[in-house]
Structures are given as C-alpha cells and as structure tokens.
Amino acid sequence: MPLHLVASMTQMIVSSKASTIIVIRPRAAIGFEVLLTRRPQEMPFLGGYLVFPGGAVEKQDYSERMFCRCRGLSPSEALSILGDDVSPEMSLGHWVAAARELFEESGIHFFVSEDGEPSDGKPNDTITRLAEKRKGRKVASTYLIYWNQSSCLLT
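-> structure tokens emitted (155 positions)
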C-alpha cells in the first residue's frame, strides 16, 4: 500500500455536522423515483458526483429564531429519532439543514408562512426572495432515477 494512504488512514479526522435528505416517490408503471443531484465539477469535495441533497448544519439551523418556525417536530422528538449523540436543539437543526439544503440544491421546499400556514406554491414576496437568493448560489444539477426491481434509469 502506498505510504501516503497508510499515513492518511492513521490520522484522526473530526467529522462535520451535516444532513442529507432522500426524496422518493412511487411511480406505478416503473417502481419509484429517487431524487439525486450532481455536484458541480469544480467543487473540491466529490465534484461531479451524484449525491442526495444535503450539506453542513449551519448555526442558524438550530437557532431559537428557526425553532419558532418549525412545525410538527420538537427538538426532543428529533433527538429521539436521531439518537442521543447530540443535543435536542442540534437534532432539530439537522432536520432544518436537510430541508434547507433540499431547497438550495433543487428548489423543493416545505416552508410555511410566518403564521404557520403551508405555502400554496403561488409567487409571493417570500418565494420570490428565496428564488432570487437561490439564483446567486452555485447549485447542483438535479436528476431523477427511475428504479424498479429489474432496472435503473437516470434522466
């Protein structure tokens, strides 16, 4: 084995906090679809690879301001699902990060209004502002994989 590989295997690496989301929907004729993104080729880490949407948990993802906007899952419920390796607040932050990354990378969102109402999908100030913010980011290409018991097709 080359020496540089042996040396890299003995170094301790501290993992970063990150979340991934897997989006699947059934398709009667073909089985189901899986959403993947292709990371931009020039990215230093896994550039050009097909991946599930996801990324780093940011401080704002587990802030009190963000928790006031979360519906349907409390920090303690998130902790019971993810395990007790992190705090309840960080556990919910992982859920928030996955939803945020899904929007940033594919434009799919689960956002609610200030009063907790789900978005109707029609253009409004918030959707327009978020779409503009997304335009400025280097985003991945989005792909659907059609999967059944005998084949897999990338589109």
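The helical segments are 3-10, 64-67, 75-82, 88-106, 125-135.
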